[in-house]
From TrEMBL:
The chain crosses the membrane at residues 20-40, 52-70, 82-105, 215-234, 255-278, 298-319. This is Uncharacterized protein. It comes from Streptomyces globisporus. Keywords: Membrane, Transmembrane, Transmembrane helix.
Amino acid sequence: MNTWRQRRPGPHRVGRAALVWAVAYAGFGLACVLSGTSLLHIGGDGTGLGPAWAVVAVGMTAALISAAVVRYGMRPALRVPLLSACALTGVMAFSLLMDVITLMAGQGVDSWASTVNKILAAAGAVLLAATARSDRVTAVPTGTAAPKPSTAPRSVQLAAWAGTLAFLPYAAMKTHWASGGTFAGVTGEEMLAVSERNGASGIFLTLESWGLDPTALLALLGVFLLWGLVRPWGQAFPRWTPFLRGRRVPRGLPLAPALLGAATLAPYGVVGIGYLALVTAGAVTMGRGDFPSEGDALLVAWIGITAFAVYGVALVVAARSYWLRTRPAA
């Protein structure tokens, strides 16, 4: 029988780590304030020092709470403030995955300071969440069985199908452009010129010239992750991987990108759909960007945002199922 032996750091240990992070995060925010660096960019333009001051406030608050955990232990009264600070840092890490995708596609981010802030905020969210749970079970005893690979319930698999199908129009649109076609009034050559103007790397442009859109390939990778969370091969490598056959997948390997993707894409897509609904209803206007008309831009936005929203929600459902199905069993 496979056995697990897993220890969680005690309240003082993880609390110290959270305290060090909080002091560093507040210092980072203060450095941005003193240097006049904006941490929020909309359309490539900074929005002032308000976000940097918010980082200072969140970091100092988290430092005080973490110091209390280090001094007094993880008391129930500290859990709500810790989780509240965790939620705030999660909000500050919003769109981190979009920056990662942008960098993987070979393009530059709007602001490196903003990206660093998101990375630090994501790390803080993990540390604060771990601190809030550090008074729970501290060890999984030897002899606890690793659960056998299992399939997610039918409802979760249906969510995975929805997330997969939602990407088909997006992938078809991007591949059509990459192969030289015209969609929404823009030709493939014009889209390639836009990518080059935005600083796309040579690899990105080469793939585009071959008719392979890198973002469509990333969508395919995301679908692979989604199905790995709901099928047994996501917990142990199946027969079609002869060099890794039978080896178990470390639990955190699929969960880490799944949680990052869910925390970014689900709110990004849901909020985006609300905004596009207002634009469609005529309540607000939207710039046409590189498209001939606002209607063309709106069509492309609906295709992209719908894919992110449905996939993001499916990722939340699948990650929760994977988490429950891979818990150590007595």
